[in-house]
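Quiz preparation item.
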């Protein structure tokens, strides 16, 4: 099978018939063998009924329906587990992404050898409250992930080699950083294609402004994981040692001041009145805590199924 189209959706009943007819037009015109996987993320409108009807009329259409709304990431992950096509294409269900992009995305994966091609909504039809923070967000993501050529990490329209989607796990809200997940799994040939974007035709966006706060926190998590995920002591041990050193120096200063003040009759040094005393206390307690965090992190890592899940690209 050439292509699997994975479409996560949450309350998009109006868009679905139009979207599947459009995909069918493109697939037939290009002679692709394909499947469409709708992942209904616990919709409370009539989306599931609409999908049932579409699937009954067209063998290419398959669907999975969650018992409740879990989020876009689990929906994508479910589609990824099931996708059979050589190339996997994800797109949003709200008609903001255009199925007309599919043939070129497919070609870039098959002929230009990309592992992942991300859409770039260069001309974007969304409110300014969304486009402006998104620019900042992408600049940070580029810096942290080291994927310097991507402008639009979170574009819903993306294409993958099948092996890529089988070797990454999209959980929580990590769909924003799939290129970073792919890179961490060793799939570094990541490209970009400018794609047409349209204003939402029906319904409304499912994400609020909290997306930006959570987005940054998730980026921190991914960075931490990729750097120290299986060796937490390397960061906590360092911080702990630094803190301990600061505490130790502060104690030395306290001692020296005490000794000096004993020999002079003009100056009486009180330990508890010295800033160094409090500095040493704070630093030593923090140092100890960092160390303990490191040890606990190491113990968790040692027992985690992730500790040795490297991916072998080739054996000779
Ligand atoms: N979506 C989903 N689960 C959610 C939220 C969104 O499956 O909990 C789907 C949604 O139906 C759409 C896609 O994810 O197909 C992108 O969502 P949306 O269009 O609301 O995001 P935006 O375009 O505003 O960034
Ligand atoms: Mg949308």
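Solution:
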């Amino acid at each position: 099978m050439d292509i699997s189209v994975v479409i996560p959706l949450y309350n998009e009943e109006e868009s679905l018939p139009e979207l599947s007819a459009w995909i069918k037009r493109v697939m037939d015109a290009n002679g692709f063998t394909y499947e469409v996987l709708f992942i209904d993320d616990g919709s409370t409108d009539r989306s599931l009924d609409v999908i049932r009807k579409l699937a009954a009329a067209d063998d290419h259409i398959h669907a999975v329906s969650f018992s409740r709304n879990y989020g876009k990431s689990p929906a994508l992950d479910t589609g990824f587990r099931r996708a059979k096509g050589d190339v996997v294409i994800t797109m949003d269900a709200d008609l903001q992404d255009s199925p007309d992009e599919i043939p070129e995305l497919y070609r870039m994966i098959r002929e230009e050898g990309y592992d992942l091609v991300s859409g770039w909504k260069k001309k974007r039809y969304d409110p300014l409250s969304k486009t402006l923070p998104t620019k900042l967000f992408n600049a940070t993501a580029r810096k942290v992930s080291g994927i310097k050529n991507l402008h639009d990490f979170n574009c819903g329209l993306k294409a993958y080699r099948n092996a890529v989607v089988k070797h990454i796990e999209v959980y929580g809200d990590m769909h924003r950083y799939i290129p970073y997940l792919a890179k961490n799994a060793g799939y570094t040939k990541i490209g970009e294609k400018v794609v047409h974007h349209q204003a939402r035709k029906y319904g409304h966006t499912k994400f609020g402004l909290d997306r930006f706060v959570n987005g940054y926190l998730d980026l921190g998590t991914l960075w931490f994981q990729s750097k120290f995920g299986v060796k937490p002591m390397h960061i906590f041990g360092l911080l702990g040692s630094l803190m301990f050193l600061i505490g130790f120096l502060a104690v030395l200063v306290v001692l020296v001041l005490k000794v000096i003040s004993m020999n002079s009759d003009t100056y009486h040094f009180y330990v508890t009145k010295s800033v160094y005393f409090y500095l040493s206390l704070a630093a030593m307690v923090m140092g100890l805590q960092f160390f303990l965090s490191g040890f606990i992190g190491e113990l968790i890592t040692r027992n985690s199924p992730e500790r040795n899940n490297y991916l072998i690209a080739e054996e000779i």
